[in-house]
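re: ur question from yesterday

yeah so i grabbed the chain u mentioned. its 385 aa long if i counted rite. heres the sequnce exactly as i have it in my notes:
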Amino acid sequence: MDAFFASVEIKDDPSLRGKPVVVGGASRRGVVAAASYEARKFGVFSAMSMTDALRRCPHAVVVTPHRDRYEEESAKVFAVFREFTPLVEGLSVDEAFLDVTESQSLFGDGPTIARRIKDGITAATGLTGSAGVARSKFVAKIASDMDKPDGLTVVPEEVAEFLAPLPIERMWRIGKRAGPLLRAHGIRTFGEISRADPRTLERLLGSFGALAQELARGVDDRAVEPDGEAKSVSAESTFEEDLTTTDAIERALLAHAERVAPRLTEDDIYCESVVVKLKYADFTIETRQMRIEPARDIQSIYQTAKELLRRFSLAGRRVRLVGVGVKDLSHGTPPPNLFSRDAVARKGALSDVTAEIKKRYGQSGITHAELLALEGETVPAKERV
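ran it thru and got these structure tokens back, copy pasting raw so excuse formatting
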């Protein structure tokens, strides 16, 4: 999809059309979640700090993310995908790989299907997306980014020739560190990666060197893997001021347990592991995890997270980010355990009711009293499945 979050905001508020729109936390530590193409002209891109974004584009309109709306529009987009093939591998709420090999007898060749999907998305949502058509996932992904917005790029049979002139930064996993390193050794394009001495690539890129050379030649045999069951659910937040007390961190853990548990309830999922993630002021990251009896209620997740917190060495450390996640998931009836299934189900009853209230009346409909003291959160919690 094209600037998906920003496009949804503009759709919902037409007065934003034509303006540089930046979606994200507006505070000093806010992060850009998406930028409209008008904002991108000023060098504003996702994952950039909001401070840097507003320095580049002072007149940008900053909009707080509305996750529920993005999920609603995403569901419509993915419904269009599945009209043409069941082989849909979602990468995020606004991007997916589709294998249409077996769909061509019904809908036409790859480019024809891509056009029909693009038209279907616009009809269903009023939004636009860009497509890449190729014989492999890696090349299709690159092609989808080449003609934005509302573009369609069809890769010819001579894949290596198509890729050869592209800059190395378009290669997966070649970023701010690897890019300058390769350029310093005269490797600037896909073509030069494909012709490079494998030993040089291994020295510069480690184990990724051999794969990078294959990808640069257009070789990628990975199959499209249709979306399956969720493997984890998590929520995390960055804070305006570093957290320096255990009480403050525990309140953050509770806030995230309140976000994670309703997601489990909504999808009828139980978890058997809880993970806590901390990022410190020096940007180092530590995680701790623990197995638990099957649960999906707020208190079970929160109490486990608090216990995990005691496993961190926090003395004198300032915490910038707090995250809570759950994994080892199972759907429907909780698996056998030391307690009766009925007892496990009863433990989740309060969370089920809480989730329903939040669904009807919004996140502020009901909350734990101690969270009323939680201040300073500047980046909306990110939920990932």
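noticed a couple things. The longest strand covers residues 319-331. also The mean pLDDT is 87.
anyway ttyl
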